[in-house]
Amino acid sequence: MIPKYAAALALASSMLCGAPAAPGAGIGPAAAHQGSAAVTTGPSSLPAPDDDRVSAPARAPGARALTGWHPFVQDTVNRVAVDDSPAAPWRLHMVARRLADRPDGWHVSAAVVGESLGPLRPATEYVLRFRAWASRQRALTLDLAQHPGSYRNLGLLRTLPIDATPRDYAVGFRTDDSLPAPSGAGPSIWLTVGAGGERGEVWVGPVVLEPMARRRFEGPPITIGSFAPGEWSEGEIEDLHARQGGTGLTLEAPANGGRLATCEISLDLSAGGWDFSLSVYTDTPRCIGRVIVLARSGSDQASEFTYWSFSGLEAGWNRVLIPRELFISYSWIGLFSWAEVRTIGIKLESNGNGPARATFSALGVAPHDYESPTPFVSHVMVDSVGASAVSVRWETSSPSRCELDFGPSTAYGKRWIETRGPATDHAAMLSGLEPGRIYHCRVRGVAGAAVASGDFTFATDPERPWIAGGDSTDLDLGLSAVNTIPDLERVRRTPFNCFSSYHFCPDSDGQVARYLDLAAASRTWVSVGFCSEDVVHGNLGPVIRRVRRLAAHPGLLGWYLYDEPERSAVDPAALKAAFDAIRHEDPAHPVLMGSFKLSRTYPYRDAFDLAFVSCNPIPFAPVDSIVPTIERARASGKRFEFVFQSYSTELQRWPGSKPGPGRYPSRDEMRAMAYLGVVHGASGLWTWAYSYIQDAPGSEWHWTELLSLARELRLLGPLLASPSVGDARANISDSAVHACLKAYRGMDYLITVNASPARTAAQIRLEARPLSTARELFSDRATPVRGGEIADEWSGYDVRIYELGPG
Questions:
Q1: Which of 350, 389, 512, 711 supports an S-S bond with 253, CB 3.0-4.6 Å?
Q2: Statement: the pTM of the whole predicted model exceeds 0.85
Q3: pLDDT tens, position by position, 202-240
């Protein structure tokens, strides 16, 4: 139990910061075994805080005080004292004086086991209430697990911050779907409290276990979450910025980061006609990307959840109401139920402007019309970009008159004001801009109307084109998951020239044809797919009918046969049969396939002409972790295009599940991944995925960063799509810098990427290619060339492209 318990505590700590536990964390000799030193029970001679500060928590119906505590991990220096006498002001006194290089749970801990935990029932919500304090700020660990034998957590694994102020904690949890017997032979149920890995003392008062009260919305408003210490998994509980004399939850996130807090709860919100309400205080409104409100049901740790997001917060207090009908869930992940809500989550996400901070309070559910729902801005689009002008479009959830603040910083400085009457579709043409500049924007309602966006950006084109003949469609620049015709209508004027949809299976051939018509009218192309079940099971009639009807359409890019068949071990023979049938009907268009394992030995290599190779590392792996995937694809000998990450992976699962909360990749991370794809042999670029960025509002800061990157790639498209110079190998003094040489219009261009977040300096020499001059395109500056070498510096994730002069 001890090694496994320690590993679990290490895992808990790592999950809170969004990273998987290191393999083997917490495994070591079981030297710190209970009973290895004298056990102290009964009244203690050590001082404790005054009795009036340690009274037992109030008991709800069915509550039970836990008795039978015993030291679980201690030694001759680190000690546990237990006092189970009825009048004792505290139950546990843990002293940590000697620290070792081992997980927190190995230093000092106490446990209660067996009959004391007999009331626990499987798949049931409970609250653990206790008072605790410490001699200094530290972490207290709680673990409900099976013991002895292989470690299995039974529903509670938490790390709580505590300090010298005695506080009442309320920790909600849901037991596992199956529990061992509380007594008898074999594994039993253990609740363990650990004092953490800091020197000092911890006192824990009487511990009460009680069933979690189930709340049901029946018409009148109800409160969700009391913001008691321990109730939320993350954040700081405070009363400075809380409404109505209560407490609130403060979350902070670094730039381009996020922080998720969850609260275990038991709610029945199946009765319709309600709004989710909360108050938000912030003093960093320009740094907040969005706030996500989530709910989870069911027993699966990664599915059955719903969410909505918003932005547009002002400095000070903001009241937000979200109608139930707006919440989004994905049936292919799991069927969420409002009748069985078990977890509520709040996530704060920051943009690239700096650290963000917000305090959340007054969470509740109120009937429709109790307060007015919060209007929101969505589908911000930036197009018609030039060196001195740009078009910005957006939508509002209710008819509004808007103004657009814009300028070179978040101070803005200029304002465009809508002159027509209230509408839901808006467009602003901004002119008189400086070339090659990044501008910040925000949308606001005219005359103090509540509708608002968060801060977002766009970049104007350079005054001098980077290359001759840019802004072409030579490079496939694709946007995935543009699933509906209204979606395509919104994005068809963006820099992307290729699109795909995941709705082509349920859509009729006529609907797909209308989608293709709109794409062709915009001089863009579409990857058309089929129903996966038809392909896998050899039902090729619908496949052949679609190919025959649409093969001559001018908007057709190719036929998307299957998405990542290696993920579900699809029979290669089934895909090869479908491939042969499609090629027989239409030899003019390529058959496409998604893959993340393309290699020389890829079992499906004979079932496609062009692969879309993807890798989504952020935030759980570094940017350069995509390189082995791309290099394996290049070594396969098959033509491929690279799909770089632009979405937050957590929306494919409950964000609190392993490996932890995700985030959007920053603009610099996306840019580095896109150019690494080109450097390592991709013939085109796609990004995944539009739907996960735009399904809910609040992502305008990230979406417009992606649009600016797409515009840059579009302006360089002919160069990026040009052939590499095969006999000019680059020798680079720093392995963080990746490079390739391309020939375009009689000139050679060296494309370089710093795949590291750290600044670096390097020298680059090209074999069989003497150098005399080099001009860096983005800065339009001459770069020193000495002894045939380019010497330069790159900031983190920087991209530099050099136009080379002859030697």
A1: 350
A2: yes
A3: 999 999 999 998 999 999 999 987 788 999 999 998 877
Q: What H or E segment, with its residue span, contains residue 693?
A: helix 690-694
Crossing angle of helices 667-679 and 700-715, rounded to 10°: 30
Write out the two tokens for 71: 């030291």
Residues 334/298, Cβ–Cβ less than 8 Å: yes
Backbone angles phi, psi at 144, to 5 degrees: -105, 115
The conformational region for residue 12 under phi > 0 = left, psi -120 to 50 = alpha, else beta, is: alpha
Q: Return the pLDDT at 99.
A: 75
3-state secondary structure 736-749: CEEEEEEEECCEEE
Q: Name residue 613's beta-bridge partners.
A: 595, 642
320 beta partners = 278
Q: How far apart are CA 797 and CA 804, in angstroms?
A: 22
C-alpha–C-alpha distance, residues 7 and 25, integer Å: 5
> Comparing 99-103, 185-189, 763-767, which segment has the lowest mean pLDDT?
99-103
- 153 beta partners: 145
Please tell me what DSSP assigns to residue 44: -
Bridge-partner residues for 527, per DSSP? 500, 558
CB-based contact 239:228 (threshold 8 Å):
no
H or E segment at 673? helix 667-679
Residue 244: exposed, middle, or buried by beta-carbon count in 10 A (0-12, 13-18, 19+)?
A: exposed
Distance of CA 32 to the CA centre of its chain: 38
Closest CA to 288 of 262, 307, 315, 261: 315
Q: Is 702 helix (H, G, I), strand (E, B) or coil?
A: helix
User: What would the pLDDT profile of 253-271 be if each residue is shown by its tens digit?
Assistant: 999 999 999 999 999 999 9
pLDDT tens digits, residue range 600-620? 999 999 999 999 999 999 999
